[in-house]
Amino acid sequence: MNIGVIGTGSRGSWLIKLLKDIPNASVIACCDVMPNRLDQGIKLAKPECKGYSAYRKLLDNKNIDAVIIASPLSMHFDMVRDAISAGKHVYCEKTMCFTPEQSIGLEGILKNSNLVFQVGDQHRYNPLYNQIKGIIHSEDFGALSHIECYWNRNGDWRRPVDDPKWERMINWRMYREYSGGLMAELSSHQIDIVNWIVEDLPESVSGYGGIDYWKDGRETFDHVHSVFKYHNGVQASYTCLTTNAHMGYQMPLYGKNATVQVTGEQGHKAFMYVEPAWINGMKNPAKLMVFQGPQSKFGKQENLCLFWLETVRKMMLNPRARHSKVLPIAFAKINYPFRIMKMEKVPRSVWLKPTKRCERRQ
C-alpha cells in the first residue's frame, strides 16, 4: 500500500517512523510547506520518496492509495475533502475539523464515498481504556456519577523558531486562526474517552480560561477549566494548566462503590479503589480482574494505524464488500488476546496493569 503524508512536522514524522514497522505499508510521498520539515520527512521515509510543497499535487499522484493528514487543525477539512475527491483513503489526526459546520459538511462527503476515513483519537486504541469501560459498566462498580480529567504541564507550550516568518506555522497551537487551543489539542482525547464510556453526548457545557501568565502574544488560553453535564446526571470536569504540572495526566472516574483512576501521560496506568463499606457486599468479586495484554513492538498509536491500514487493504481487495467507512473506534473490529489473571480477594487498591504494547490477533 502506497501512502502519502501531508504535514511532516513532529506528528507526521513520528507516524512515518511507525509505518516502517508495519508490513505492506510504504511512504512514497511527503508534503510540507516548510523545506526543512519536508526534507526531514523524506529522509525518514526513503531516498526515492517524492517531495511536494503543495498538497494538491501530492493528491494528483496516481500511485498513492491513501494519505495521512498531520497538518494544523484549521487545514483538516479542506485536505480531507480534497483527498476524498482524489480517491484516496484518509487517516486524519485529531481533532477532525475546526468548526461544527465543517464536521457536518464532512459527514455528508463521507456518506457519498466508498473510501476509508479514520480520525486519530489514539486513546481509543489503548486496550487499558477498554478494560476500564468494562469495569465501570459492571454491577459492582455502582452508578458512575463524576469524572475528573486533568492534563497539566509546566511550560509555555512553544517550539523554537529559527526564522520569524515561520512563527505562526510552527506555533500554530497559539493562534486562533489555526487552533482550538488546549481543549482541542489535549482535553479532546479525554472528552472522546468520556463520551465513549458514558455512551452519550453532553447536554450542557460551562467553562472558563484566559491568558493570565504567558504574555507572549499567544491568542489561545494558557489554562482552561470546564464542566460537561450529561443527560443521565454524570458530570465530567476538564482542567488544563501550562503553569503547574501537578496531577499531570489523570482521570479519576467515580462510581457509587468504587473509583478507577488513570494516571500517566506517556505510559498509562490505572488503579481501582473499592469503597470500604462495599468490599464485603460485592455481588460478583470474581468479575473484578486484572488484565495484561501481550507484549509486541506495536503500541496504541501503531494499533490505530494498523487498524486503518487493514481496513483500507480489505477495501482495496474487495471494493464491493461492506466495510465501515468512518472509523471512530477500533475495539468493535480488533480482538485483543488478553491474558486474564483472576483475583481471589479484592483489596482496596487494585492495579490494572497497562498494555503499553500489544498486537493484533493473527
Q: What order do the helices and strands come in, and which of them pair?
A:
Blueprint: E1 2-6, H1 10-19, E2 26-31, H2 35-45, E3 50-52, H3 55-59, E4 66-69, H4 76-85, E5 89-93, H5 100-111, E6 117-120, H6 127-136, E7 144-151, H7 167-170, H8 181-198, E8 204-210, E9 223-229, E10 235-241, E11 249-255, E12 258-263, E13 269-274, E14 290-292, H9 300-317, E15 326-327, E16 339-341, E17 349-352
Parallel strand pairs: 1-2, 1-4, 2-3, 4-5, 5-6, 6-15, 7-10
Antiparallel strand pairs: 7-11, 8-9, 9-10, 11-12, 12-13, 13-17, 14-16
Structure description:
The protein is of the alpha/beta class. The chain is built from nine helices and 17 strands. The protein has two domains: about 1-120, Rossmann fold (3-Layer(aba) Sandwich), CATH 3.40.50; about 125-290, Dihydrodipicolinate Reductase, domain 2 (2-Layer Sandwich). It has helices at about 10-20, 35-45, 55-60, 75-85, 100-110, 125-135, 165-170, 180-200, 300-315; strands spanning about 1-5, 25-30, 50, 65-70, 90-95, 115-120, 145-150, 205-210, 225-230, 235-240, 250-255, 260-265, 270-275, 290, 325, 340, 350. An eight-stranded mixed beta sheet has the order 8-9-10-7-11-12-13-17, covered by helices on one side. The protein has a seven-stranded parallel beta sheet with strand order 3-2-1-4-5-6-15, sandwiched between helices. A two-stranded antiparallel ribbon has the order 14-16. It is globular and about 65 Å long.
